[in-house]
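Hi all, a correction to my earlier message: I attached the wrong file for Ubiquitin carboxyl-terminal hydrolase. Here's the right sequence:
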Amino acid sequence: MQRRGALFGMPGGSGSRKMAAGDIGELLVPHMPTIRVPRSGDRVYKNECAFSYDSPNSEGGLYVCMNTFLAFGREHVERHFRKTGQSVYMHLKRHVREKVRGASGGALPKRRNSKIFLDLDTDDDLNSDDYEYEDEAKLVIFPDHYEIALPNIEELPALVTIACDAVLSSKSPYRKQDPDTWENELPVSKYANNLTQLDNGVRIPPSGWKCARCDLRENLWLNLTDGFVLCGKWFFDSSGGNGHALEHYRDTGYPLAVKLGTITPDGADVYSFQEEEPVLDPHLAKHLAHFGIDMLHMHGTENGLRDNDMKPRVSEWEVIQESGTKLKPMYGPGYTGLKNLGNSCYLSSVMQAIFSIPEFQRAYVGNLPRIFDYSPLDPTQDFNTQMTKLGHGLLSGQYSKPPVKSELIEQVMKEEHKPQQNGISPRMFKAFVSKSHPEFSSNRQQDAQEFFLHLVNLVERNRIGSENPSDVFRFLVEERIQCCQTRKVRYTERVDYLMQLPVAMEAATNKDELIAYELTRREAEANRRPLPELVRAKIPFSACLQAFSEPDNVDDFWSSALQAKSAGVKTSRFASFPEYLVVQIKKFTFGLDWVPKKFDVSIDMPDLLDINHLRARGLQPGEEELPDISPPIVIPDDSKDRLMNQLIDPSDIDESSVMQLAEMGFPLEACRKAVYFTGNMGAEVAFNWIIVHMEEPDFAEPLTMPGYGGAASAGASVFGATGLDNQPPEEIVAIITSMGFQRNQAIQALRATNHNLERALDWIFSHPEFEEDSDFVIEMENNANANIISEAKPEGPRVKDGSGMYELFAFISHMGTSTMSGHYVCHIKKEGRWVIYNDHKVCASERPPKDLGYMYFYRRIPS
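and the right structure:
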């Protein structure tokens, strides 16, 4: 400890009071109960303020609470003290000084006090040959700002010394985001070495996947034992599907699954149901090859050359990043970059575009004092706080200041004039928004479009009162489905947040050039000569818009008019136009060999966009609607048995699942009910039950079962089906509707069978012709117990309808062959000129490549 003490500098600070040695122990006595030693699992923040991007490098340093281990800049530490009453903080400060050169020109750079913070990053923008670092730590006691120099072994109580040493030697809470350690954080599955794979002839196509048990076509997982493709639903953000992959595991015991769409030569997202966590599969290439997937060539090209061997792709990188042109750096409010954490450019590009929208600026940065003042005790785990922090960091200009004149002169004298831009590091934000998401929490590249929708989902779930900035993206889509045989139609509406435009390759205007280029390219590859200059397909935007509006064939269409499967076509129109229209160009697809392909095309995206002609018109004169009849649902017998097994004795509740949920902060009784009413199916399923029921007034009330064990009907007695006027318990209704049946159908079946779950299922199977009875609905709504079994009809999604005239103000471009690799860059039009945001570098754009974008952001033009 004496050796360690030599590493600390003496405390400074003109506004603080230093203590005499004899008073230190007496001063700390009242605060001893609040000083903790970090335990395993505690996150110790030494690098970044919870409310800002202040760090020990900042002018005011960083204050670490010795009880919560949260860190605060000088501007925010008083707020934490007032809110919590915690008085003892460790103040961390890094001093950067210019080296004093000797006659010989100076020695190698020497960094003093390197062990005091361990994982505190150096400032990459300072030349280490010219500067050295000196780190300083001290305890500060609020509200009087008494300072105690560290170390002070003779005067400090032993507990305080141990706590200080533990804080200073703690590891970064973001280790899983560090490029060199992420992969090592995932355990190797114990099932990987001896995984059984069935020789059943299954071969997985490169596209067109669909869940084997439902119609979902996203969040699909390939079971590595039998090749079944099924939907997932174990993410805590409630994204995914119907949980059929997990259900399949419970039926078969096949433990490992890989997420389709994440497969690259470097790996894929693999989940172990038995181990209940993401894992590594060292034999993944072999396991995928069993089903016809060549993992090692997923990023290859048809001739076996890799991305960086091909001149055409290099050209794409140069054009999008505007290489070869001298770009002028931009500084000040709204011109702050985001440091790349290792393939985090997808997040940076989306967030730059999001915070260029006034509604998001007002919702978060405009409400900064209120959001910060009313933030929870741990603001690092609050979405609105972290959104506000990021928005303020990007918009305030506090972290985007031009170099002072003296520094510029010095750089010119040294012929090193390379304007530096620090930017801010979104580590805390990324850690929170990607929490429990196996894709975004990894260090691999992701799809910017998927992250945009993930962010919108988080904004929706964490709205501030009635204010929801994501309303600006929401619009209604009218889908018209027509039975080709009977010509009858059905109109439905759904909510969406972006418009997906297909690439109309057949409409290329330079087909002759493309054919000539392709012949020359193949000849060059065959003879191993340099490739010719790239010729991109030039696609008219009008052709892509036309392709969007044309009818699509409906797979597995069931015609209610024919009571059988038939051919059907679907067209989509806008039932409302959003305030801000996000357009995604569908550039990515898979070849027959499972190699991802990107349409390297140039599309003449318009600055002014008019889509008023795509306004929905509804049912037209002369059109006849399809009968409102649902297709027959066939439920396997084992599924019925599994439902009945969900009715468990309260004494058999899985307490480990209860405690997992309780540790997330939910009330204990609510956790017990969640595990009970989901039949001990695990914490993930119970979590979804909590999300659905957490707004109910009796959410945290103790679990009660009136008449348990004494009624003739087991299902009814367990769920307390003794309600007024023969109304079935909501929990039994939820179980039946979770199988895909209509709510009114479930209620009517339960009422007809005295609330017996098994008999109600048999009743449904024997009444496939069920139609919604209006008298029944009226009776249900007027029932005395309607507050329990019926909810008021929702108002529907909030949309900001208006004109379909838009102007382009931002676009995100992708470089590379796949969304799972490459790089993203964002261009935004600000103050009348285009600006390029390339990670931490923000510059005035000279040639914005509007024809090569991946996502485009349009704002409505007021009519």
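Sorry for the mix-up. The chain is about 25% helix and 15% strand.
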